[in-house]
Amino acid sequence: MKTKKVLAIIIALLIAATTVVSVSAERISLTDQDPSGKTEVIAHISANPGNVTYLITIPDVVDFGELAQPAEDVDSFTAKPYTVSLDEVEGLNPETQEIAVYVRDENAEISVDHDQEFYITNKADSSKQFSYDVYNSYVETPTFSDAEHKVNNNVMPRAIGYYLYGFTQVGQEVNGSLVLNQRQLYPYVLPDIVGDYSGYMVFYSAVVSTQ
Fold this sequence. Notes:
By secondary structure, this protein is mainly beta. It has a single domain, classed as Immunoglobulin-like, CATH 2.60.40. The chain is built from 1 helix and 10 strands; from the N terminus they run βαβββββββββ. It has one helix at about 15-25; strands at about 5-10, 55-60, 75-90, 95-105, 120, 130-135, 160-165, 175-180, 195-200, 200-210. Strands 1-2-3-8-6-5-9 form a 7-stranded antiparallel beta sheet, with no helix packed on it. Strands 7-4-10 form a 3-stranded antiparallel beta sheet, with no helix packed on it. The protein starts with a strand and ends with a strand.
């Protein structure tokens, strides 16, 4: 499993100053010939307030390898580990803030009427796809007691994804697993589903208040 680093450098903006510049840059005149006009009202909200900088490492690739079609219609899980870690942080107040990390499938939508699961899709035929689950701890063969560690166990609460973890200190890690049930392959004639499959997990991070 390869990794890549995502660096977020947050620069605090002076909203008041920005507003003054925008307002003074151009004025609109109302006259008896043109009695109506409109003013754009603008502002800025930083995703990471307080000059917080951080470095989080996420997986580059998680490879399920060769999937196997089970001989019978029974569960047949295959699991692969992944790690997300906080490697650097400055300016964070761990008493009142955390770096929240969210994750979703590339094609997931927030609406409850849409599919929000994680998928790998046949590269040659997008109509063929198989779902997998994301766990925030390592799970090899899921049981009922593992449900609390399944990230995609409920409806996605926000468009940016399912909540994965809130980091507050360097060295913290999520050592989880992606779990695919090969039972999904059983109903197919094997030649119909052969090929290479892939999909994308989209991670999003932000400094949020914990108060």
